[in-house]
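re: that complex we talked abt at group meeting.

here r the seqs, copy pasted straight from the sheet so there may be weird spacing, ignore it
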Amino acid sequence: MDPFFRCIKCYFPSTKPSLYFDKNQVCNACKYQLYYDKDINWDEKLQNFRDLCKEIKNNKKSDYDCIIPVSGGKDSTYQTHLITKIGDLKPLLVSFEPSYPTEVGRYNLNNLTKSFNCDLIQLKKSKEIYKKLCRIGFDVVGDHEWPNHVGIFCWPIQMAAKLNIKTVFYGETPGLIGLGRWDELENQKIIDRSWVEEHSGMNGLRLNDILEFDKTIKKKDLSSYVYPDENIMKDKNINPLFTGNYFKWDHQTIISFIEKEYSWKKLDKPIDGDYAGFEDLDCGFMAMHQYFKFIKYGYSRATDHASYEIRHGRMTKEQAKEKIIKHEGRIPRTHFREFLDFLKIDEEYFIKIRNKYTNPILFKKDNDQELLMDKNNELILEDDWLKSFN
Amino acid sequence: MDLTNLKKRIIPIILINNHQVVTSRNFSDYRVFGNLEQTIEIFNRRDVDEIIMLNISSSKKKEILDLNTLKAMSRNTLMPFSYGGGIKTLRDIEKCLNLGCDKVSLNNIIRSDNKFLYEAVKEFGSQAIIASLDYVIDNDKPFLYDHLTSKKLDIDFDDFIKSVNDKNCGEILITCVNSDGYLNGYNLSILKKYRKIINCPILVNGGCGVPLNMLSAFEEGADACGAGSIFYYTKYAYKDIKDFLKKKKIKIR
Amino acid sequence: MKKICVIDYGINNISSICKALKKINEDYVVVSEKDQIKNFSNIILPGVGSFDSGMNVMKKKGFDISLKKAASKGQFILGICLGMQLLFNKSEESIENINGLNIIKGIVSKIKSDNFNNIHVPHIGWNSIFESNTNDINLLKKEEKKDFYFVNSYYVIPENKDIIKYYFKHGKNYPAIIKDKNVIATQFHPEKSTNGLAILKKFCRF
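got the structure back, here u go
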């Protein structure tokens, strides 16, 4: 197998963190999809969900039955539908404000309170601290969204602990994108501390590092990003779950449904780096996070979505290849100026960091092994990347 | 009475495959953890004692000397670092040292060529050479392990480790395959058995999951603890580990 | 005018020292020919390897003669690790019984291991240094960290003990920094730590 190869079925790349391939070059996401489509008894799962909701209602210690972390995106909208309409639960919606809120994002978030008659708490974080964290994320791990990844997992769980709400419902199960060993995919029930450390995008960076790297940030400044202590989790019996463990999840089905039933909005044109306009809607800087994923691993949103559609039998490999090649791999220019201003950097510094985190195997270099760039500062993909679509 | 002020070391061991950081379990089950440069940068900023980079190239089932990756690492690190993986000749060692390594780690070559270790020490000095011994425990007995063939070897472990010691290598890195990747603690049986007769520093590796594991290893006489998964999959930052050990009166930088 | 050079005698790793000099914003030139060193006020002699490998290349390239001349003319020389040991007359490490550069009088001897007391050799890792009672150079501020990175099996024994300015302890006390007029040397690698960079910077200003 070559250094960079793709799943022969769905085109997920070998460089994708935590994705396993068998000896026939088929990835775990494909394997999981087969299991997901055939071996799960969804009626039984529905009954499990109903039982779970009954138990939640009987044991609640708060006015709210559960917490749903929401962004207003397709998954959190669908979850809210499932939990309120099928589970008959009264959730508290909690939202961790995105780095650069968009108009459609704001609309979809407000829509939740209207369509489902739910209360919503949004954490509007201290801008100064958040920007410092974004900058550290960008400089140290090439990911300005680092504090956001930490926040969207840890803050809702923290709120659950603070408000004595035992159950936190997250959305789609990671098995659908093959994240982790097979035994982890089959049995993933809760989002515990180690799951967050491994899969939420922390990249090995920890909050205690932040305190070392930037002495102007104090421990109290980071309180919203902390995953609650194990003892608190145990005492209060906090249970973060995947709703996707009980309901069959499919993007297109969900989107059609929530558009029709709840007036959910997506974008008319694709987001930079994607061919679709239904993901990463709420934050104008997400496309940049996806771009850094591309330079590090050779794939981003178009691959995520195309491979998903292949696994659901709605796209051929040929169609996927075309979309991926057409849409991926360029610096996202929408909101680019705002992005530079947000981090207080200039384009030269941006290019320096971009090049630093680029995986040199994927891109063309000169004789001194320096990355080649075109006149727009775009990197040039190695032939192996194009040849990987076989 | 403490006759030395030399500190114990905590050494992140970074496994590389095709310029990416990977993690393993029992020297198999490799998965990509993430981007190499970001992992190095975190360790840079943490000002770690030193790092060891091991190129595993498991997909091709043969070792390659990944000089490009080594060069990239060298460019980005200030602290001491060592490289292992695919070193077969003395010129290979020279290339690694010239690219900025402080030490090299030798594994397969010292088994397949029993003169190599002696020659390497003679040319480069013992302080530049780490002898890396991977082992499995089977029926309470240690066996040397070959990660390329994934097999335990029919070599007398006792003879081998003693001969390595006699050839004046700089350090011995012992990695237990059984505990690798499980975050359940080091296997300290080899350390306990051989500490009193090995003159050079011993680095233990394989299985560290919590700071307490390192405390146990240091108390048994390890000079340094290698670790991987603890830095990627647990809540512990490097400083957390050091603070814990300092509280337990271990000499740490 | 201060001009710094780093001697590349082929067997050593100069990339670390060059990286460090860049980091402290010091201009330097890498020299690999003996005749070049006379143009520099400050000469850095790094070293990784064995005594014999080091001296063989030195002699082959004629650096032994030109360095001795440079020392006697008052050019500042900084020897690092093996570079420190090569400055001396003889080393126990030498299998071929080769002479060193003979710039500093004394010999190089092996650190004794003592397994019972956890003294392992080579001496590898971070160790702290402390002043001798003849220390007249202020290379370390009081509040600065005292741990430096060592990788050595051997240590220097200068005939004139007064040139030992700092020691490290590993079983016994051994010289960590020596200074004999215009020749200064460290057993540890200053280029591997921030406090070491401060020492490098001070040398560049000599």
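couple things i noticed - Chain B has a mean pLDDT of 92. DSSP finds ten helices and twelve strands in chain B.
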